[in-house]
Specification:
The structure holds two protein chains of two kinds. Chain A is α/β, with parallel strands linked by helices. Chain A has 20 helices and 22 strands. An eight-stranded mixed beta sheet of chain A has the order 7-6-5-2-4-3-16-9, with helices on both faces. A seven-stranded mixed beta sheet of chain A has the order 11-10-12-13-15-14-20, sandwiched between helices. In chain A, α9 crosses α10, α11 runs parallel beside α12 and α17 crosses α20. The N and C termini of chain A lie far apart (about 55 Å). Chain B has a domain of about 210 residues: Thiamin diphosphate (ThDP)-binding fold, Pyr/PP domains (Rossmann fold, 3-Layer(aba) Sandwich), CATH 3.40.50.970. Chain B contains eleven helices and twelve strands. Chain B has an eight-stranded mixed beta sheet, sandwiched between helices. Classes of the chains: A alpha/beta, B alpha/beta. At the A-B interface, α1, β9, α9, α11 and α12 of A face β1, β2, α2, α4 and α10 of B. β17 of chain A pairs parallel with β2 of chain B. Bound molecules: iron/sulfur cluster (SF4).
């Protein structure tokens, strides 16, 4: 199918944004293009951009659904800032996305949608394709709806189904522009619509029509090609952060031999983890959709007492509701992982937008002295390893762990090298042995300071625990003043000693650079992209990206000590920087913060770092 | 769905197996002591190994209970015992899970968990100690305090309408509800045994006296002078007869219950409503549960006991089904399923 009439230009990386009305199937279009990108051997990352209302009015800007993919020959760390190509199925999607595309970008439009009604509904005064405002772009304005109807007129298809497949026409154009084969996409249609051969035929016909149309029209006389990336040998798949999180827990369950229990309540953007785990009963996962956030975590504490790898998933408002119960898990010294998929706050805030503003809540948001381990995932695929490590630390150290991810990681996807479960580091929870005459509920391991886990049903280990202060060793209720101080120290020290079991802080770049960029959690992709770019330009800059927040890696102080200037970048109003000032007050920290519900852009970070380097 | 088969031959236990070494710290004379003794008498006779009991509670006077039982146990946070119990039971459905709660714990702060655990029909035994007051915080009215009662937070008398726990249980589609009283050890034992045998959420309301803050809250029901007129022991298949002379009875007249006297106005024993605890329709059970003094005697005994699938069993069934039918048997299967590609 590669009858090329045009010349082929090689590109290192490309960002494409598919946009249309919620009903136009842009998510499917995007994911089919992602599959083809994987097949072409590129590295890639994606991000969906849904409207926040479930049924936003058709044809309006608030009803626009988008999907962005960034693919390249080199490692791709983010879904990309600005798009090189925009597919806009109607005027509203053009309007909504103009600020997200590069100057000179290719814009593919459905000419049939640019009628007066659609233009006005989108909020334009005049047709933007006619008033010269798009002169700086490469416009491909094709009658996509008309051509789609034409392509399937030999099939006995109703008008609604016909128009539903117009997204495949647009995909066909893109596939041609990027020199892709159609076989895989056609195979998808055959599998997906097995029950409806007519729909298979229609989709194939429309996809081919778009492809051939592009070939015939010879837009700009050019097509593009991105050579395969130099990925390591192995098997790969595409994965979103939420799915990776769910799978990380399942892997930890299998490796530790502890059955997985999830108690959770639906909340954006964490719900998908609950949904995913509900789907894997064949791996003995017990996913319990509770009546509220509190029952979610509390049922998990019950399951943890009973010997499960117990987790609960939520977002910021839910974490607030779970605070008291996290304290119970701290006091009872039971393993428990709390996942907070962060979103914009406070209160209901910006449910569909990403933020890093729950860090201080995770660190300090409980009554009493209640330390917990905190890990922050750095990318969508890293959510798998973060969930795994959170489980391991929680089970082996017998204490709750908060895992912070965010909306960007959760919904974004990237290429994931499939691991073998047997290659993951072993997890060995400190199970008490049946009939152990020395068993005491709060006897501790001298190294880790964890207590033992005695599971109901086991002979000879009957014991009671609870939220009241415990006497050291025996675990009996105690109001003794000195005992309380001792137990407070022990709980704190137990968490601090986790520093002996996590990796040292890595630094990317020159150990003596002029500027150390500090970041944490979900911003890794954009931070490493900017820092690598500036390093290549010869700038003296390095990156310390933190994944372990509580405790901090043991060498943190030594790392900071080596740099003249430190800048802490966060998608919040400066939370990690507060924590660092508290932990290592001897250093001066510059900061860069963005609180717009939007990720960092490469250009803004570059500008900030250059300003600091030139000061 | 069969009731639990009790096999005490297999497991021979005594009361001593369950008494803990902890000092019991309830006030002298508190009704909780009698309830604890009754439970200590019931547990050895259930055919359950002592390691397989888990006693969970929330916060309140009654919630200290787990510390006084030599079993596995958790004393959790206020109102949340039902959620703890859910996690324990789902994680291991073989355990015999007993939830201890009070009127503040389950009717106020934990009301949401209370109705949902019942709605799901999780197989646990839920003992609700109803003393109609907040004891541990020293005497504020609770959601079951009778209207008009003077307490520390209702100096002029409450103007709130109280909950009747039985109505709430039936409203939440409960399948088992029984009521008993701390002054009658024998009746408590019978009801606890019945609750243990029933598969599903077995709710037992125990009218419990708080000697300090709501002493005599149940006086009409318990005092020697009035109790015969205000206690009605319901028994399956038996007419609902009460009174010192056993001459009073309950009849269904139209859509309401009424008290009649046998021998008056041509009423005979055969006119009296016969109790059917197994009736699926909860209408009469709701009416019996809601009878309260001074208009009516309070119904004691097993009011409702209907078999239905339990939540934990349903979850286990769906897991077994998935294990049998899904091609995904291990995590490696899942990781390698669906759309993947290889780079060599
Ligand atoms: S305050 Fe009342 S309920 Fe609490 S222990 Fe004392 S008597 Fe019992």
């Amino acid at each position: 199918m590669t009858s090329k009439n045009s010349k082929v230009v090689e590109l290192e990386q490309v960002v494409i944004r598919f946009a249309g009305d919620s009903g136009d199937g842009m998510q499917l279009t995007g994911s089919l293009f992602s599959d083809s990108t994987a097949f072409a051997g590129n590295d890639f990352a994606t991000f969906p951009d849904y409207p926040s209302e479930i049924r936003a009015p058709q044809g309006t800007v608030s009803g626009v659904s988008g999907f962005q993919i960034h693919f390249g020959q080199k490692t791709v760390h983010t879904p990309g800032d600005l798009a090189d190509v925009l597919v806009a199925m109607n005027p509203a999607s053009l309007k909504a996305n103009m600020r997200w595309i590069k100057e000179g970008a290719i814009i593919i439009l459905d000419a049939d949608a640019f009628i007066e009604k659609g233009v006005i509904k989108a909020g334009y005064l005049e047709d933007p394709t006619l008033d010269g405002s798009l002169s700086g772009f490469k416009l491909i304005k094709s009658p996509i709806s008309t051509l789609t109807k034409e392509a399937v007129k030999h099939l006995d298809l109703d008008m609604k189904s016909t128009l539903k497949s117009k997204n495949m026409f647009a995909l066909g154009i893109i596939m041609y522009l990027f020199n892709r084969e159609l076989d895989m996409t056609n195979l998808y249609f055959e599998r997906k619509f097995k029950a409806n051969p007519l729909v298979v035929e229609a989709n194939k016909a429309v996809l081919a029509a778009g492809f051939n149309y592009a070939d015939t029209m010879e837009f700009f006389g050019t097509t593009y090609k991105v050579e395969p990336a130099f990925l390591k040998k192995g098997k790969y798949r595409n994965i979103t952060g939420n799915i990776a999180t769910a799978w990380g827990f399942m892997a930890a369950s299998e490796r530790s031999g502890r059955p997985l229990f999830l108690g959770s309540y639906p909340i954006t953007p964490a719900t998908e983890i609950l949904q995913e785990l509900t789907n894997h009963k064949s791996l003995s996962v017990k996913a319990f959709q509770a009546e509220d956030e509190i029952a979610g975590i509390v049922s998990s504490i019950g399951a943890s007492y009973t010997g499960a790898l117990a987790i609960t998933t939520t977002s910021g408002p839910g974490l607030s509701l779970k605070s008291e119960a996290i304290g119970l898990a701290v006091m009872t010294e039971l393993p428990l992982v709390i996942v907070d998929v962060q979103r914009g706050g406070p209160s209901t805030g910006l449910p569909t937008k990403s933020e890093q503003s729950d860090l201080l809540q995770a660190l300090f948001g409980r009554n009493g002295e209640a330390p917990v381990i905190i890990i922050a995932a750095k990318s969508s695929s890293d959510c798998f390893y973060s969930a795994y490590e959170a489980s391991k630390l929680s089970l082996e150290h017998m204490t709750p762990v908060i895992l912070l991810t965010d909306g960007m990681l959760a919904n974004g996807s990237e290429v994931f090298k499939i691991p073998k479960v047997a290659d993951l580091s072993p997890i060995t929870p400190p199970l008490a042995e049946a009939n152990d005459p020395l068993y005491k509920p709060y006897r501790r391991d001298p190294e880790k300071l964890n207590r033992q886990w005695a599971i109901p049903g086991t002979h000879g280990l009957r014991h009671r625990i609870g939220g009241l202060e415990k006497e050291d060793v025996s675990g009996n209720v105690s109001h003794d003043p000195l005992n309380h101080q001792k137990m407070t120290f022990l709980r704190e020290e137990k968490v601090q000693r986790v520093a002996n079991y996590i990796p040292e802080q890595e630094v990317f770049g020159n150990p003596n650079a002029d500027l150390l960029v500090v970041s944490w959690g979900g911003t890794f992709g954009v931070m490493i992209t900017v820092v690598e770019k500036m390093q290549q330009q010869g700038q003296s800059i390095a990156l310390a990206h933190f994944k372990h927040i509580m405790p901090l890696p043991k060498n943190t102080e030594d790392v900071f000590d080596r740099y003249k200037k430190i800048v802490v970048c966060e998608i919040n109003n400066g939370q990690f920087v507060k924590y660092l000032r508290m932990s290592y007050p001897q250093f001066k920290y510059y900061q860069h913060n963005k609180i717009q519900g939007l990720p960092f852009m490469i250009a803004e970070l570059e500008a900030k770092f250059n300003e600091l380097l030139n000061q | 769905m069969e009731n639990q088969i009790i096999d005490t031959e297999r497991i021979q236990l005594t009361k001593e197996d369950f008494s803990s070494d902890q000092m019991v710290k309830w006030c002298p004379g508190c009704g909780d002591h009698a309830i604890l003794h009754a439970i200590e008498n019931v547990f050895p006779n259930l055919g359950v190994a002592k390691e397989d009991f888990v006693v969970v509670s929330g916060i309140g006077c009654s919630s200290r209970f787990p510390y006084y039982m030599n079993t596995y146990g958790i004393h959790s946070i206020h109102g949340r015992a039902a959620a703890i119990a859910t996690g324990v039971k789902l994680a291991n459905p073989n355990l015999s899970v007993w939830m201890i709660s009070g009127d503040g714990d389950s009717m106020a702060i934990g009301g949401n968990h209370f109705i949902h655990v019942i709605r799901r029909n999780l197989d646990i035994n839920l003992l609700l100690f109803n003393n109609k007051i907040y004891g541990l915080t020293k005497g504020q009215f609770s959601p079951t305090t009778p209207k008009g009662t003077k307490t520390k937070t209702s100096p002029q008398g409450t103007f709130e309408r109280p909950f009747n726990p039985g109505e709430l249980v039936i409203g939440a589609q409960g399948n088992f509800f029984a009521r008993t009283i701390d002054t009658n050890p024998k009746a408590m034992t019978v009801v606890f045994m019945e609750a243990a045998k029933h598969k599903g959420t077995s709710v037992v309301e125990i009218l419990q006296n708080c000697v300090i803050f709501s002493n005599k809250a149940h006086e009409l029901i318990t005092s020697r002078e009035t109790r015969d007129e205000y206690q009605l022991f319901v028994e399956h298949g038996k007419p609902m007869i009460f009174g010192a002379k056993k001459d009073k009875g309950i009849v269904l007249k139209g859509t309401k219950l009424e008290i009649v006297t046998i021998g008056e106005n041509g009423i005979t024993e055969s006119d009296i409503l016969v109790h059917d605890q197994y009736e699926k329709d909860s209408g009469v059970h709701a009416m019996i549960s809601s009878m309260m003094p001074p208009e009516f005697p309070v119904a004691l005994g097993v009011i409702r006991s209907v078999k239905a699938e339990t939540f934990d069993q349903a979850m286990m069934n769906s897991i077994e089904f998935a294990k049998e039918h899904s091609p995904i048997k291990t995590m490696d299967d899942l990781l390698n399923s669906g759309s993947t590609w290889t780079i060599d």
